[in-house]
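Protocol step 4 of 6: structure prediction from sequence.
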Amino acid sequence: MSTIQFVNVSKQYPGASAPAVDNITLQVPEGSIAVLLGPSGCGKTTLLKMVNRLHQPTSGQIFLDGVDIQSIPVNQLRRNIGYVIQQVGLFPHLTIAKNIAVVPELLGWDRQRIRNRVDELLDLVHLPLDFRNRYPAQLSGGQQQRVGLARALAADPKVMLMDEPFGAIDAITRESLQDQLLELQRRLRKTILFVTHDVEEALKLADEIIVLDKGRLVQKDTPCNLLANPASDFVRQLLNTDDRIRQLSLVRVEMVMKPLHPAIQLSPLPQVPVGTDLKRVLSLMLSPAADTVLVTHEGKPIGCITFEELRKVGCLSN
């Protein structure tokens, strides 16, 4: 795993009256999903693209695991960063297997190792192995996006950059891809910087949300703290923090659960798996009137939620 750190980073495009990114300092913790959120033109994609040097900062420094990215040869840097974009970017003349194998081939992996990795990744993103010999045009948009995710994971990078990867997908497929990303993240624990303008997507996916406006950092916090304690009217309006029921449907249980206490009797309590939203938790609490809900992962209890946890994030009135 690896951290991403921005130190006084700015980007001024020639002829622009104001910087696209204005003196940003922040850190993305290792193994977390940090979502860059804000309106169009706020600088979120520019900030993301400076991590793999598709854009160069006008001033400031960016570090990966403590190493200044300017000291890393650009080809080496990009081969060690997974990159997923909205348009997928698959090579239409290459098979799915060849698309996934692009970076491993550049790294000089042997043929059998590449074949094994392609098969492993197809299984990981829930695509049949016989897709390896198909071409991108033979796949749906959602399937192509899964291939794009597999390609970004091919060389097992520590860092993933995702620039509105699900923005061009229909709503049902988009939700499925979001769920799959969370499932993969629970297994792989990559450091992910994710750009979106969709507030609901940000609240669902993020461990931390980085709110930008006009190139400036407005607030950086967990989804729950942003909802409960917006730093400004801009954040309050962007997240629509007054809609309590909506909040319940967007925040995942693992964001608010607390550790299990030895005195808790597990057997009679209702259970939900990680990834469940708080609206479902509240429903279980109200019927059959349970004041505690267990959170499980792969069938094993890992935490619990009470009414108090819901109150702490501002989802319920005191």
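Step 5 (inspection) to follow. The longest strand covers residues 4-11.
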